[in-house]
Amino acid sequence: MRIRKLIPGVDANLLVKDAAKLMPDPVRRNFLRGAASLGALAFLTGCDIIDGDSAEDVLRKVSSFNDGAQGLLFSRTKLAPTFPESAITRPVPFNAYYSEDEAPVVDPATWRLAVSGLVDNKKPWTLDELHALPEVSQITRHVCVEGWSAIGSWQGASLGDFLKRIGADTRAKYVWFRCAEGYSNTIDMATALHPQTQMTFKYDNKLLPRAYGFPMKIRMPTKLGYKNPKYVVAMEVTNKDHGGYWENQGYNWFGGL
Amino acid sequence: MSVQAIAATQEQATVIHPTWVRVTHWINALAILVMIGSGWQVYDASPLFAFTFPRSIALGQWLGGALLWHFAAMWVLVVNGLVYVTLGFATGRFRRKLYPIRPREVIADAKAALTFKLAHDDLSHYNAVQKLLYTGVILAGVVIVLSGLSIWKPVQFQELTALFGGYDFARYVHFFAMAAIVGFLVVHISLALLVPKSLRAMVAGK
């Protein structure tokens, strides 16, 4: 398993700990071999992609093609459906590749949001400074790649406005996020600038609890859950795709809804 | 009319399934098996009911692998399906082969089939049960593609998702469309094996 940019002081074991319910084997490159289904047999028989690695290659190419297709389908103005407070799922499940009591504990006094890459102002932000930004709010559906969904209420600042405030080059292709536990995520600029993409500081109008990503998560109702990073410590505006924790293991890069 | 032309017409008359039907049939068979196998693995990540599909019959090893298969085979299924449905209407095959479906004939043919008295002398003519099942599975195919799109893109295609009763409900629609297709496949494959010349017709055309 590839882990990008370990940050000092973070327990590496915690990072490597697998989402056992999702990954049957620690050997992710084997995930195609031995697939004994009728479909696999039918598909592989007589094809020159019988070897698992080249089958994976083909599938990854199609996944990249699907990134492009989803980029074209993505509307910069179309909003995700919003819901009344009565529709909120209580409680919204905790979900990560580690258990809830292993979630990062961040000290708000020393925490800073690092900003880097193609931006004019690279000054780190304190939590108080971020909390002072104009507040936006949304009650939207969180859709997990596993299939389940939950409606939640998130408050924070518009990421698009923040990027403009720090003088980001919004013609850049990507925004990359790094998280306290080593999780990471790269998103397309169009989604970063979407009106509902939010730097989230509150859940249900209360300070974001640890389980939901204190002190800051990035909430994107236009993307699957794994594209919504929690415990964010750094963001970079970049033309280089830095990948992401799950994306590097085979989840679709765009992950759009 | 020349001798060759007459011969060609007669030749054509004996063809039960034209080439486009056979090609799209087998491409579809492959695509649907990959979609079902990988779909079962995706289902297992967050089951809708109190059961999961055994990993040994599911495709992709884990959720990420299954999703790669699912969203690759979907293009094959949809493009091939569009070619099939377009030609089905354009050539008049659907109208000729599948219509009309009369309830009385369906009941009579179903009784005959269950007592093994149904004739299979003329494979170019579908009995009423076949008409009903083939029409039904084409409709299930349309529903499974549209409900799948509504789950994949509940923001960009939110109107479609709403049509299927919202994101959560659309997952059930997608599941039951799969169940209908699997049910069809059990009957379809069993009967093709019971009447081998029907299988030959789908391979060789006659």
Task: Kindly list the characteristics that best describe this protein.
heterodimer; A: 257 residues; alpha+beta; five-stranded antiparallel beta sheet; four-stranded mixed beta sheet; globular; B: 206 residues; mainly alpha
Helix tally of chain A equals 6
Taken from the alpha-carbon principal axes, the silhouette of chain B is globular
Tell me about the largest β-sheet of chain B.
Answer: none
Q: Structural class of the secondary structure composition of chain A? A: alpha+beta
Write down the Rg of chain B: 19 Å
Shape of chain A: globular
How many beta strands in the DSSP annotation of chain B?
0
Secondary structure: number of strands of chain A? 9
Helix content of chain B: over 70%
The level of helicity of chain A is: 10-25%
Low-confidence stretches of chain A: 1-42, 44-50
Strand content of chain A: 15-25%
Number of helices of chain B: 9
Series of secondary-structure elements of chain B, N-terminal to C-terminal? HHHHHHHHH
Largest sheet of chain A: 5 strands, antiparallel
Give the class of chain B from helix and strand content and strand pairing: mainly alpha
| Rounded radius of gyration of chain A (Å) | 19 Å
In percent, how much strand structure appears in the residues of chain B? under 5%
What would a concise description of this structure say?
Chain A has helices at residues 12-16, 38-44, 52-73, 127-131, 159-165, 189-192; strands spanning 114-117, 136-143, 149-158, 174-179, 184-188, 198-203, 206-207, 217-219, 232-238.
Describe the protein's architecture and organization.
The complex is a heterodimer of chains A (257) and B (206). Chain A is α+β, with helices and mostly antiparallel strands and 257 residues long. Chain A has 6 helices and 9 strands. In chain A, the strands form 2 sheets. In chain A, strands 2, 3, 6, 7 and 8 form a 5-stranded antiparallel beta sheet that branches. In chain A, strands 1-9-4-5 form a 4-stranded mixed beta sheet. The longest helix of chain A is centred in the N-terminal third of the chain and has 22 residues, at 52-73. Chain A starts with 11 loop residues before the first helix and ends in a 19-residue tail after the last strand. By secondary structure, chain B is mainly α. Chain B is built from 9 helices and no strands. In chain B, α8 (167-194) crosses α9 (196-204). The mean pLDDT of chain B is 92.
